[in-house]
Amino acid sequence: MASRPSHQLLRTAIRAAAPRVARSYSGLARKATISPISSSFKTSYRGIKTLDFAGTKETVYERADWPLPKLQEYLKNDTLALIGYGSQGHGQGLNARDNGLKVIVGVRKDGESWRQALEDGWVPGETLFPIEEAISRGTIIMNLLSDAAQSQTWAQIKPLITKGKTLYFSHGFSVVFKDDTHVVPPPDVDVILVAPKGSGRTVRTLFKEGRGINSSIAVWQDVSGKAKEKALALAVGVGSGYSYETTFEKEVYSDLYGERGVLMGGIQGMFRAQYEVLRRNGHSPSEAFNETVEEATQSLFPLIGANGMDYMYNACSTTARRGALDWAPIFEKANLPVFEALYKSVKDGTETRKSLEFNGRKTYREDLARELEEINNQEIWRAGRTVRTLRPEHKA
Ligand SMILES: NC(=O)C1=CN([C@@H]2O[C@H](COP(=O)(O)OP(=O)(O)OC[C@H]3O[C@@H](n4cnc5c(N)ncnc54)[C@H](OP(=O)(O)O)[C@@H]3O)[C@@H](O)[C@H]2O)C=CC1
Ligand SMILES: CC[C@](O)(C(C)=O)C(=O)O
Ligand SMILES: [Mg+2]
Ligand SMILES: [Mg+2]
């Protein structure tokens, strides 16, 4: 088994570093007029950590740096204007509201998002407004419109983002690909990024479980000198457990790449290819589905998630281990050129332009829904629906 730091070791390292961190945060505590941070370190442990990630030292910021009273105090004069109410708007908005922050939502009046916001308890005229009005009322403008809509609405939105406000994104897309999106923030506002590394639905469920999503944070423009601090506070506010520092560029390249690759497109393609070959060789739909998707998602992938690849291998037969070890490099070699092509397509803006064109259409919702319905009707996923009905938790 690969070695990893024990919790005991981690706790010892954290205790040893606590006084140094407490000192470095005492200045911050004074500026923010909050109770001295050193006292909270007596009861909670150090939130900021330098950890060794496979030989590279990186800094990770933890929620423990921002106990709720400190977070609320820090943002007490701010109104978070959350623009857009898709998956992230829902997750981040409800978490920030539950954290006691002042949050308002801005969406198109009477659109689908308006309806969903109403369902989640946002109140028209109090916490729910048309986009322009929400931006005017907010101090921290959280642009959570779809990436295509961020570009389309920029000309109307930009003049409302006045000096002293903070512009917040959850993706580096709009500002990094400015030649295509034309999103160039005003020079007199802080521009920050908090990008949860997971679906907005998970941002919400992990928060409700008392856990937190991993997020990337970055600063594009620091006018106040406090942009990073704000990003860290907001990351906690919207439900992050751990924040990893990056740049807008690195975030958008890795994110567009990952979702097209292993996270979504790659895994879909791999599942389908394996299933098809099983079917061509006379295996039944249930057998092909169980051996491809059900076992992966219900048994083996959670083992990787919990304890790593070696753990999953060791939980499988020696027969499986031998064969998988032999075939892994073959898959790696076959996939490497595909991933190289994908990264290039991301970095040169091809993926951005395709996304802007497609998701900028008036019919983007129906067009996406139509394609997803086609997938839903593929035999593999139809077979999956029946397999899932047999799960104990399934309710007829
Ligand atoms: N989905 C996720 O889990 C993640 C998303 N992100 C990033 O977060 C941001 C938000 O993404 P997500 O939550 O998925 O939202 P979506 O991409 O699903 O966008 C939905 C929102 O955009 C609005 N919208 C779309 N077109 C327009 C338009 N022309 N004018 C005004 N509003 C429009 C919709 O309003 P209406 O209902 O009125 O059409 C809705 O509120 C993006 O930058 C994304 O990359 C980052 C991490 C994960
Ligand atoms: C993997 C898709 C994602 O990047 C995400 C949930 O993190 C997205 O854009 O939705
Ligand atoms: Mg993404
Ligand atoms: Mg992502």
Automatic annotation (TrEMBL):
Pfam families: KARI_C, KARI_N. It catalyses: (2R)-2,3-dihydroxy-3-methylbutanoate + NADP(+) = (2S)-2-acetolactate + NADPH + H(+); (2R,3R)-2,3-dihydroxy-3-methylpentanoate + NADP(+) = (S)-2-ethyl-2-hydroxy-3-oxobutanoate + NADPH + H(+). PROSITE patterns: KARI_C, KARI_N. GO terms for molecular function: ketol-acid reductoisomerase activity; metal ion binding. Substrate binds at S317. One of its GO terms (biological process) is isoleucine biosynthetic process. This is Ketol-acid reductoisomerase, mitochondrial. It comes from Hydnum rufescens UP504. Residues 56-246 form the KARI N-terminal Rossmann domain. Its main location: mitochondrion. Mg(2+) 2 binds at D255, E291, E295. Residues 247-394 form the KARI C-terminal knotted domain. Belongs to the ketol-acid reductoisomerase family. Gene3D superfamilies: N-(1-d-carboxylethyl)-l-norvaline Dehydrogenase, domain 2, NAD(P)-binding Rossmann-like Domain. Its cofactor is Mg(2+). Its EC number is 1.1.1.86.
